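In response to the reviewer comment on reproducibility (Comment 2.3), we provide here a single inverse folding case reported in full, input and output, so that an independent group could reproduce the run without further information from us. The structure tokens appear first.
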């Protein structure tokens, strides 16, 4: 076994772990039976939400999710941190608080040093410790390529669970993290990412979305999701469909430092192209919008920010709370309007 192993090289395609496209996922799930026979299942698979929710009693609901992927960086500790942060985000996006996690581990043990595997698990455990939850168990297999993630379990109040379908006409949309993680990751694989960009990538993808657990206390907040593999356009479209409304998005949503230059130079992900092919037919773009900016609106965000639908009179309070909790780039990026479920991109 070689002494030095580049982690992303162990994954086919250099570390791709992208979600199935929305269209493919819909086709796969089309034949699945509905879960309507279980009245305590408050949120299931039907709404493309971030986690499942089961009512335990009048004051408690169990929130459960799972997320895992192949390496997006070569440092094993950082990979573990990113994967764990990404998985816990789905709990926070439902307005819940995580209580424990289970590890999902698939590693090519014949090609990876044991120390590297330990570092991946240690990175995930460090994030869970930061979130105040234990990794209480899990499952491991010998796999063709490295895979790591979590089953995350949390608690929330059954009457205050936040889903992606509660948006109302007039609501503003707030995004708590800038876009461009996918471009950073693509540039890293092409050896075109400078040290400052790598630092920004790690800082963003390991920042826990703990803000989410505080949002149920704000009556003006109506819906939440986190922006991950489908990009800002894809996850906003899920919210539009859930609410039965049109979403208008700002073409100039905030970007991580240096991302615009990389995108203008042609750095993009294959997932951004697949995302656009999957949902571009229900997105209206300004005729003058440049292709690189469209790609960034479709850019997959590993461990991305929260997308929050809030009444106009509560938007500033949410922005203030986000910035107090370290989301310095939190910004208004759109709004809900009357109309058929689709996305209209505008130059605000």
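Designed residues, in position order:
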């Amino acid at each position: 076994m070689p002494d030095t192993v580049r982690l992303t090289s162990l994954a086919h395609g250099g570390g791709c772990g992208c979600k199935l496209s929305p269209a493919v996922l819909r086709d796969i799930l089309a034949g699945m039976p509905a879960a309507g026979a279980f009245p305590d299942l408050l949120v299931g698979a039907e709404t493309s939400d971030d986690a499942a929710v089961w009512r335990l009693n009048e004051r408690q609901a169990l929130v459960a999710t799972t997320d895992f992927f192949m390496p997006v960086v070569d440092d094993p500790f950082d990979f573990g941190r990113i994967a764990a942060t990404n998985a816990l985000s789905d709990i926070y996006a439902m307005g819940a608080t995580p209580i424990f996690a289970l590890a999902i581990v698939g590693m090519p043990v014949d090609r990876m040093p044991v120390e590297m595997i330990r570092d991946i698990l240690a990175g995930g455990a460090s994030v869970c410790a930061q979130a105040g939850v234990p990794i209480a168990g899990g499952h491991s297999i010998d796999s063709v390529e490295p895979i790591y993630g979590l089953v995350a379990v949390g608690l929330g109040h059954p009457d205050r669970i936040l889903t992606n379908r509660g948006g109302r006409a007039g609501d503003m949309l707030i995004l708590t993290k800038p876009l461009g993680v996918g471009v950073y990751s693509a540039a890293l694989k092409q050896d075109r990412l400078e040290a400052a960009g790598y630092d920004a990538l790690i800082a963003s993808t390991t920042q826990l979305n703990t803000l989410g657990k505080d949002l149920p206390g704000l009556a003006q907040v109506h819906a939440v999701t986190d922006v991950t593999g489908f990009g800002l356009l894809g996850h906003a479209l899920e919210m539009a469909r859930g609410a039965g409304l049109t979403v208008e998005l700002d073409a100039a949503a905030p970007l991580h430092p240096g991302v615009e230059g990389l995108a203008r130079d042609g750095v993009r992900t294959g997932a951004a192209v697949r995302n656009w092919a999957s949902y571009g037919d229900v997105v209206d773009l300004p005729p003058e919008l440049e292709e690189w900016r469209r790609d960034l609106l479709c850019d997959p965000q590993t461990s991305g920010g929260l997308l929050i639908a809030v009444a106009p009179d509560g938007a500033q309070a949410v922005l203030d709370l986000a910035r107090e909790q370290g989301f310095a780039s939190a910004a208004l990026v759109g709004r809900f309007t009357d109309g058929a479920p689709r996305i209209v991109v505008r130059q605000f």
